[in-house]
Design a protein that fits this description.
Elements: H1 2-28, H2 33-38, H3 44-55, H4 57-69, H5 85-96, H6 103-116, H7 118-122, H8 128-137, E1 144-146, E2 161-162, E3 167-173, E4 176-182, E5 185-187, E6 204-206, H9 208-220, H10 231-237
Parallel strand pairs: 1-4
Antiparallel strand pairs: 2-5, 3-4, 5-6
This protein binds zinc ion (ZN).
């Protein structure tokens, strides 16, 4: 048996080392200037992987959003530089998002994206269109998914379960009504009689309203932390 464990451990180490070495190799392969100097031919995925190895995947996403945000016509150069102001503005956004890049770096990365990654650069990250289509097609409403702003029981901390399949709801927001799916959560562990309307004995139900009341209570106590992420939709409902 010890041999089996040792062999499993050494296999795990081999795979881990291989992944680390591959990633290090990827990172060392490239600097943005190579593309222009050597006239390389890359697929979109290859170019995205190379940039991600330098900037991180999240960094490439932020770069895309920032490049989409500042129009290409912001071309004027600042005194003493040859870099268009667009890249200075994009670098400003990137820096605020925690990526330490100079306007000159941004220009090099942008040129790579523009040359090899047209689909990525000009694709939309908005889901709106497909959400409407999916809602129109099927049994679930995709435009909004409403759930109580809790993942675990507020009394015993057990993970809450979904009581049943999502039901249909409407969320009234500033943009008008939106079709939505809604769920109720339950804690099977807590032997507390549910409210009389629901009729579930021995199961504590987490309806949106119930969870919202807890939200108010805990907010007051400043102890609700990250569990309140989803409360905005609830505010619209109440
Ligand atoms: Zn519980």
């Amino acid at each position: 048996m010890p041999e089996a464990i040792a062999s499993k451990l050494s296999e795990r180490k081999r795979v881990q080392d291989e992944i680390n070495a591959t990633f290090e190799k990827l990172k060392s392969l490239w600097n943005p200037a190579d593309f222009n100097e050597n006239n390389l031919t890359l697929t979109e995925d290859q170019a995205l992987l190379l940039i991600s190895s330098k900037l991180s995947f999240y960094g490439v996403l932020v770069l895309k959003l920032a490049l989409n945000h500042v129009p290409v016509t912001y071309r004027t150069t600042l005194r003493g530089t040859s870099t268009p102001i667009r890249y200075t503005l994009v670098a400003g956004i990137m820096n605020k998002k925690g990526f330490s890049v100079s306007p000159c770096d941004v220009q090099k990365y942008a040129e790579v994206l523009e040359r090899f990654c047209q689909n990525f650069l000009f694709s939309t990250l908005q889901l709106q269109d497909v959400l409407w289509e999916l809602t129109a097609e099927g049994e679930y409403r995709f435009n909004k998914f409403i759930a109580p702003p809790v993942e675990s029981c507020l009394k015993c901390d057990e993970t809450l379960g979904m009581h049943n399949r999502p039901s249909k709801a409407v969320v009234y927001g500033s943009g008008g009504p939106l079709p939505a799916s809604k769920i109720t959560l339950e804690c099977k562990h807590c032997k507390i009689r549910a409210n009389q309307d629901s009729g579930f004995t021995g199961i504590k139900m987490y309806s949106e309203k119930f969870a919202f009341l807890f939200f108010l209570f805990f907010k007051k106590k400043n102890a609700f932390r990250s569990r309140v992420r989803k409360n905005k939709t609830l505010l619209l409902l109440l």
